[in-house]
Amino acid sequence: MPGEPIEGQVLLLAAAKASIPPERLPTLVDQVQATLGPALERYRRSYERCYASDEREVFLVDSDHWTDIGAELEFGDRELSAVRRAHEEQFGRIGRRSDREAEFETTLEIRAPVCIATGDPSEPSESSSSSDSTA
Q1: Is 131 inside any structural domain?
Q2: Alpha-carbon distance 9 to 1, whole Å?
Q3: Which residue stretches does the UniProt record annotate as biased composition, category Low complexity (predicted)?
Q4: Taking the mean position of all CA atoms in its chain, how far away is CA 123?
Q5: Residue 54 domain boundaries
């Protein structure tokens, strides 16, 4: 079973900015992960991967891709906005940690990040900031 695509502190930040109850966001993120996790190989083949670690991979998609995910999961506008914001906040945190903040901010102007958990939550977490390609 994969770990979490979004770190706890990032969830708290995104929930504080979202128009949904903060306790709802982790459930929504879990629903998205349940949909995206099994599609990881398809994402690897179809989208640019701009970051990979033991815990998660981040792919850059067209902005309307989130609309498709929301429709598939029957999310309302507020739910979808909150989940998308969580993925964007995680992407920003990765950019700051890997000294790629400016690059990642520019990327957000034209594409959207999708974070997919890849790690096993039962294994000890190691911070890794390997990257595959540029955004």
Answers
A1: no
A2: 21
A3: 120-135
A4: 20
A5: 8-117
> How confident is the model over 79-108, as pLDDT tens digits?
999 999 999 999 999 999 999 999 999 999
Sign of CA dihedral 28, 29, 32, 38: negative
Tell me whether residue 1 is in a domain: no
The answer to whether residue 105 sits within a structural domain is yes
Residue 61 to residue 127: CA distance in whole angstroms? 25
CA pair distance 26, 45, nearest whole angstrom:
28
What is the CA angle 126-10-110, rounded to 5?
A: 100
- In the chain, how many domains are there? 1
**How far from the centroid of its chain's Cα atoms is residue 27's Cα?**
14
Total length of the chain: 135
Helices 8-17 & 77-97 angle (0-180, nearest 10): 130
Residue 133 has pLDDT above 80, yes or no: no
Q: How far apart are CA 25 and CA 31, in angstroms?
A: 10
Query: Tokens standing for 105?
Result: 């901010």
CA 91 → CA 1, 120, 123, distances in Å? 22, 20, 23
Tokens of 26: 């982790």
